[in-house]
């Protein structure tokens, strides 16, 4: 089980021209409780079960456990998931020694685009491209496990 | 993912003399919601992650998905589980072509002893030994995932 340090940002400009690859991601949650999320994800032609613990105070670090599983099993397990399956396309963009993963959401979260960068620790510096918007690290509304229950489309009515 | 058919009974007499083996089981739940339980189990020197769907109307059959995982990872994942870890000793008893698994609970569920038999289907007949008590198949209070939240010791006050 690894401790992952990630920072998350909204995206405000055109980023697709910088992407070197992209793939579709479909994921559901067997538990969307923040203290113990259990996610089933189909990404391209691979599938995974991922368990995450609660974030620390900064919201940057969470324990994560992940195993690859056969796609057929993932599709069966997806049927057991909570209502509200997440459907998005992930773009990969190089950024110095690091890379951004930019998720463009569809379905109930259409309109939401978020970039994530994985860092060695909370203090690590990194270049901020023009298209990078407001930081939303630690804001639980932007967790995918929250978007299942309160999708982005419903926010506009607030 | 297999469909398992199980029947569950309380135990009313001495069963231990018939057991050919026993082992300790410690388990916790990442989700104890009946429609999608996610269980981390350490059984003897092995460990598993198990996902079960909702039971059918009879309560006899539930979808089940299980993978063996390293004990070290199970111990880490156990820390993320909901409060209320289940601690029990499982006894194995032969019964014709089938076998009973009899769970003697400890901790918050001390006093509860339950026997389970796995069958090919709901119609299959089987011998009922003297020590077998009332059938509780489908009674969700007796699900281990329920015993986490409402342990047996608290029932006595009802």
UniProtKB/TrEMBL annotation, chains A, B:
CDD domains: CYTH-like_CthTTM-like_1 (cd07891). PROSITE patterns: CYTH. Residues 2-149 form the CYTH domain. Pfam families: CYTH (PF01928). This is CYTH domain-containing protein. It comes from Dysgonomonas termitidis.
